[in-house]
């Protein structure tokens, strides 16, 4: 047996693995993954520590050159080893190369210089120092005198002094050499986030919240590190429940990973958590600098923090004593990685929790079908929060039928009922959110004469119109000026169709000339804090109406919002993606949940052309069970996850013929392997057949058995590696895909 090892876990070391022979005496080789071993390294066979990242029966390298692993390292299991094992699991279960998996997991930060702070202090007693100072002054040693004068006053910061006084290090060095002063060095951590003041205010939990907390805490104290689904309606106080449980976990000396769906939500979450837990909290995400990440890595590893907050990559925080993983808003699509290995954070969190003996809580107001399936299979325990805490009542929801509006002559995008309610809120000085479901929406330009839509030259998608005269590709960023006639038939009748935020803003301003309106979408939120600034301003009451897309519905609390209008609820229902109904339901419920979170009773108007659709109905009545039972029946009929398992094999090539040929070959290979245990569909063009000048085709494989799909993935991976037909075609794997890859 052979082992591939890495000789360090910083980013530059992860790209290269080295092959060694595993001595017979080591026993079960598979158990070696993640183990630290000692190997003879380089020409001099220097004894070097290395981690085993892969075990295999054979190697391509000349066997006479392969050296033996010397022995296992004495240090025992380390967190790096556990994470390497996790990376290996990712590779095996989702596909891709070991290096890719390692880089996802050990986003290990290149080794970065730590920040140093140096403090200068006096070594001599005062009298003696003053004598020396007089001596310096006499000899006109100006800089040295300045330093000494300062040191006599008090200890001071070395770096600041150098900068302010334009002093040089040599002056300091000579004083140090003569034993007059000393310079003490301290290593500091970069702190990427401000933790707030700890305050002891705690809310009094209601009966359901207490029930949920007691269940988890009782289990925990008995040594049962369970898996739970905290199913609580919007605003039911899930975060309070998490915090109460975290308190128990932390008091046992263990650590907590708190996953949130988006980086933008980390700051408000840290603020809330630090009010309760103080300073031992940090964040981890890809927007931080290398130095910040490296320091958080060290702080976590050394146990200097108890809680880490972040999006899916925070799952790989190197906590030695992991006690709890929370996956908040577990239904969110952003938990699925869109690059290889295309893992789902929920699945990985369940795995890591099991491996490390940690409890796990998935939380949501609109749980994914996957999570509910786990619950109905008794794999996970449900904790319900069915009401909002005292004083806050869930909003009242009305459906406005846009077909009726049209019939009765209202051509506006705002129904008469919604319009009436907006006026009422304006009069009362309460706030309104208008939510536009942009999923599935295209503000594209097309020609009314020939019907041609203007497309991006690099991607097979329509360009989107932006004021005043630009056409932009939302996938690759390509831009051109809006033409004044159709590029194909030269007709001047070209224009935009559909509903964009800008259009809505224009209409709202016209219909409600006295209202102060804010708009938030991809365009207004450029810049690191554009997003936050708009939300803050709205929170402060600086506007009456906020118009926005999905980004305004996630996890924000607006005290004074008593009306939410959902303008085109059904736009995303017919996307041809098997999750379309589920994502629409989530969006509607989450958007509706923004209403009435403060003192005001909330009202929600869902505008739709399909008032009878089960998704609209279930969202309007808040009946999750109803939604679930219809949706799961549809998944069963159509054989979609979570009722069966689905693997998308995605092929990429620079030429259409190349990708088609590759797809045919793989489809043929699968046909040869034909068996009862799986079904092949395709190959088909991806929903965006060309993206950034690369063509994409997909083969779908379905099986009731996930392991069967993993086996096929392995066969395909090996085949592609060996076959000369795939020099220009690359292949990726996507298990239980989200959207149309
Ligand atoms: P969720 O995470 O379910 O959306 P939060 O935990 O954010 O809900 O709670 C919503 C609001 O209700 C917050 O302002 C929170 O402080 C408050 N809250 C939660 N539980 C209670 C309670 N038991 N009593 C009073 N207020 C509560
Ligand atoms: Zn035309
Ligand atoms: Zn493009």
TrEMBL record:
Zn(2+) 2 binds at residues 456, 459, 473, 476. Initiates the restart of stalled replication forks, which reloads the replicative helicase on sites other than the origin of replication. Recognizes and binds to abandoned replication forks and remodels them to uncover a helicase loading site. Promotes assembly of the primosome at these replication forks. SMART domains: DEXDc, HELICc. Its cofactor is Zn(2+). It comes from the Bacteria. InterPro entries: DEAD/DEAH_box_helicase_dom (IPR011545), Helicase_ATP-bd (IPR014001), Helicase_C-like (IPR001650), P-loop_NTPase (IPR027417), PriA (IPR005259), PriA_3primeBD (IPR041222), PriA_3primeBD_sf (IPR042115), PriA_C (IPR041236). Component of the replication restart primosome. This is Replication restart protein PriA. Pfam families: DEAD, Helicase_C, PriA_3primeBD, PriA_C, Zn_ribbon_PriA. Residues 481-638 form the Helicase C-terminal domain. The keyword Transmembrane does not apply. It is an enzyme of class 5 (isomerase). Keywords: ATP-binding, Coiled coil, DNA replication, DNA-binding, Helicase, Hydrolase, Isomerase, Metal-binding, Nucleotide-binding, Primosome, Zinc. PROSITE patterns: HELICASE_ATP_BIND_1 (PS51192), HELICASE_CTER (PS51194). PANTHER family: PRIMOSOMAL PROTEIN N. The keyword ATP-binding applies. Residues 112-139 form a coiled coil. Zn(2+) 1 binds at residues 447, 450, 486, 489. Transmembrane segments: none annotated. Binds 2 zinc ions per subunit. Belongs to the helicase family. PriA subfamily. Residues 219-385 form the Helicase ATP-binding domain.
């Amino acid at each position: 047996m052979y082992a591939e090892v890495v000789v360090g876990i910083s980013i530059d070391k992860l790209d290269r693995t080295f092959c060694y022979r595993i001595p017979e005496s080591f026993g079960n080789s598979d158990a070696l993954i993640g183990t630290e071993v000692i190997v003879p390294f380089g020409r001099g066979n220097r004894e070097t520590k290395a981690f085993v990242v892969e075990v295999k029966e054979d190697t391509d390298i000349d066997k006479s050159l392969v050296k033996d692993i010397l022995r296992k390292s004495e240090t025992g299991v380390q967190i790096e080893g556990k994470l390497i094992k996790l990376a290996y699991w990712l590779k095996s279960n989702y596909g891709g190369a070991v290096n890719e998996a390692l880089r996802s997991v050990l986003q290990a930060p290149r080794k970065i210089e730590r920040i140093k702070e140096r403090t200068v202090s006096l070594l001599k007693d005062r009298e003696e120092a003053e004598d020396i100072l007089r001596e310096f002054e006499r000899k006109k040693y100006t800089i040295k005198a300045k330093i000494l004068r300062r040191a006599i006053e008090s200890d001071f910061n070395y770096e600041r002094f150098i900068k302010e006084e334009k002093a040089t290090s040599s002056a300091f060095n000579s004083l140090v050499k003569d034993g007059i002063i000393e310079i003490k060095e301290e290593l500091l951590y970069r702190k990427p986030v401000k933790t707030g003041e700890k305050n002891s205010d705690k809310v009094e939990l209601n009966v359901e919240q207490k029930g949920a907390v007691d269940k988890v805490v009782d289990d925990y104290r008995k040594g049962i590190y369970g898996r739970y689904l905290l199913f609580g309606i919007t605003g039911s106080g899930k975060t309070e429940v998490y915090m109460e449980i975290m308190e128990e976990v932390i008091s046992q000396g263990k650590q907590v990973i708190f996953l949130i769906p988006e980086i933008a939500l980390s700051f408000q979450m840290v603020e809330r958590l630090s009010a309760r837990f103080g300073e031992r909290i940090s964040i981890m995400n890809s927007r931080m600098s290398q130095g910040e990440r490296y320091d958080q890595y060290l702080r976590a590893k050394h146990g200097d923090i108890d809680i880490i907050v972040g999006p899916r990559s925070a799952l790989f925080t190197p906590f030695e004593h992991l006690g709890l993983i929370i996956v908040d808003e577990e239904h969110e699509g952003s938990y699925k990685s869109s690059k290889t290995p295309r893992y789902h954070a929920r699945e990985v969190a369940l795995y890591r929790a099991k491996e490390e003996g940690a409890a796990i809580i998935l939380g949501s107001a609109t749980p994914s079908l996957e999570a509910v399936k786990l619950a109905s299979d008794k794999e996970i325990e449900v904790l319900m929060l069915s009401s909002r805490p005292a004083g806050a009542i869930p909003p009242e929801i009305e459906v406005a039928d846009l077909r009726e509006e049209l019939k009765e002559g209202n051509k506006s995008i705002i129904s008469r009922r919604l319009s009436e309610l907006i006026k009422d809120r304006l009069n009362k000085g309460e706030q309104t959110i208008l939510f536009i479901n942009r999923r599935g929406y295209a503000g594209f330009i097309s020609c009314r004469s020939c019907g041609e839509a203007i497309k991006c030259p690099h991607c097979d998608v329509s360009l989107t119109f932006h004021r005043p005269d630009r056409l932009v590709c939302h996938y690759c960023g390509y831009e051109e000026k809006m033409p004044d006639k159709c590029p194909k038939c030269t007709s001047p009748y070209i224009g935009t169709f559909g509903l964009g935020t800008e259009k809505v803003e224009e209409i709202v301003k016209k219909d409600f000339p006295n209202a102060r309106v804010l708009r938030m979408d991809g365009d207004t939120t450029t810049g690191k804090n554009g997003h936050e600034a708009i939300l803050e301003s709205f929170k402060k009451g600086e506007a009456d109406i906020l118009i926005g897309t999905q980004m305004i519905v996630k996890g924000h609390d607006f005290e004074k919002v008593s009306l939410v209008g959902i303008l085109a609820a059904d736009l995303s229902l017919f996307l041809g993606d098997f999750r379309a109904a589920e994502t629409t339901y989530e969006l509607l419920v989450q958007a509706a949940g923004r209403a009435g979170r403060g003192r005001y009773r909330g009202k929600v108007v869902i505008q739709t052309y399909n008032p009878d659709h089960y998704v609209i109905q279930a969202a309007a009545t808040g009946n999750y069970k109803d939604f679930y039972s219809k949706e799961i029946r549809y998944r069963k009929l159509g054989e979609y996850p979570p009722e069966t398992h689905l693997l998308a094999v995605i092929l990429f090539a620079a030429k259409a013929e190349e990708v088609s040929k590759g797809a045919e070959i793989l489809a043929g290979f699968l046909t040869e392997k034909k068996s009862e245990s799986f079904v092949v569909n395709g190959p088909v063009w991806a929903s965006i057949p060309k993206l950034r000048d690369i063509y994409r085709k997909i083969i779908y494989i379905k099986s009731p058995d996930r392991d069967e799909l993993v086996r096929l993935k392995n066969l395909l991976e090996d085949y592609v590696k060996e076959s000369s037909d795939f020099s220009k075609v690359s292949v990726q794997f996507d298990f239980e895909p989200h959207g149309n890859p």
